[in-house]
Design goal:
- The chain is an alpha+beta fold and 225 residues long.
- The radius of gyration is 26 Å and the shape is elongated.
- The relative contact order is 0.16.
- The protein has a domain of 151 residues: Roll (Nuclear Transport Factor 2, Chain: A), CATH 3.10.450.
- The protein is 36% helix and 32% strand.
């Protein structure tokens, strides 16, 4: 009788072990080292992007399977899909929200000649181009006056991941009050009372292996609507 009870206990324990093992393999385990979700632009006090101070993490970017059945056929969606696989903290809506804040910050800092706030946000060649315009204005005594009235539309128009470098291009449909005055305060370009509809196409990039969540502006173009 005792042997029969012992055998029953052993069988039950074995079944329980199998069930627990299956739950473990399905649900996985948390090690406490998971990366918390973040806003992709990591905007800091005053809406500014912080400096790129963090070093890259060790290792390489995850290998992506381009044969994945979940891959969207649309090129933009496919690029965002790749970026999301490589950086689990990436969220498209948070990115667009951060990009809008970055757009306003850069636009106003450029108009004001605010180099301290521009430098951490721009790639070196973009900063050099902005610097040339700001110096010319200062030499002739011109002043740029810009007010962002609002956005008519903001959308992602391109997205790619090349090895570990994510690149996203957005079209900003912006409504601006923009004009330039000379050294005497006379308006020489634009209209201080007329709202202009502008389409700015800006490209941001980031190394997804880096701990630093900030994106840098690497290319710009604009045209009136």
């Amino acid at each position: 009788m005792a042997d029969s009870q012992l055998l029953t206990i052993v069988i039950i324990a074995a079944i329980a072990g199998v069930v627990l093992f299956r739950l473990y393999t399905v649900l996985g385990r948390r090690t406490g080292s998971e990366r918390p979700p973040t806003d992709n632009f990591h905007l800091r006090t005053g809406g500014m992007l912080g400096p790129r101070e963090a070093e890259n993490t060790a290792g390489s970017a995850p290998k992506l399977s381009h044969a994945s059945p979940d891959r969207p056929s649309d090129p933009v969606a496919s690029g965002l899909f790749d970026i999301g696989l490589a950086d689990r903290s990436f969220d498209k809506d948070n990115f667009v929200k951060g990009a809008k804040s970055a757009y306003e910050t850069i636009l106003l800092a450029f108009a004001a000649g605010d180099r301290a706030n521009l430098t951490p946000l721009l790639a070196p060649d973009v900063m050099a181009a902005f610097e040339a315009v700001m110096k010319r204005r200062e030499l002739v005594g011109e002043k740029s006056n810009v007010t962002l009235v609002g956005f008519s539309d903001v959308k992602i128009i391109a997205a790619t991941l090349k090895i570990s470098i994510a690149e996203i291009t957005l079209a900003f449909g912006a409504r601006l009050l923009s004009f330039i005055t000379d050294k005497d305060g006379k308006v020489i370009e634009g209209d201080p009372k007329a709202v202009q509809d502008i389409t700015d196409v800006w490209t941001f990039t980031r190394d997804v292996r880096a701990r630093d969540p900030n994106w840098l502006l690497v290319a710009t173009s604009s045209q009136p609507l």
